[in-house]
Amino acid sequence: MASSLINRELPISDLLRAQAINGILTLSLKGIINRPRPDGAPYSFPSGHTSTSFATAAVIYRHFGWKWGLPAAAAATYVGLSRLQENKHYLSDVIAGAVLGGYVGYKVAGRPSGNKSLSIVPMAGDMYGIRASIRF
User: Fold this and answer.
1) Model pTM?
2) Residue 117: strand, helix, or coil
3) Residue 135, phi-psi category: left (phi > 0), alpha (psi -120 to 50), beta (remainder)
4) Sequence spans of domains, the chain
5) pLDDT tens digits for 77-114?
């Protein structure tokens, strides 16, 4: 069993790509929705801890199958439940984080590497800013 794991390539590039895309989407949603947390702090929806852990679990599942993916999903679920326990998020925040992170991780790890791209381009002129384009 260990030999089948050794023959697999560690999905570092997919993990990094999934975390970057997930982070951008999660932080964007937090800023747009601006839902207060149960403890009164800002930016509750969606749960960033949960989305990050589910993105990782989805990449592990796609690369190593259910024998590694199931424990990773269990750990991600624990992270989400701990956010509820600590009164940092509502249940809907945790569910949204799980769906978002799981979807991003699953899609990123499932595409051939030639179809993935991330471009960030500075913009200058009448307005200044950054334009981002993500294909995953």
Assistant:
1) 0.75
2) strand
3) beta
4) 2-135
5) 999 999 989 989 999 999 999 999 999 999 988 765 55
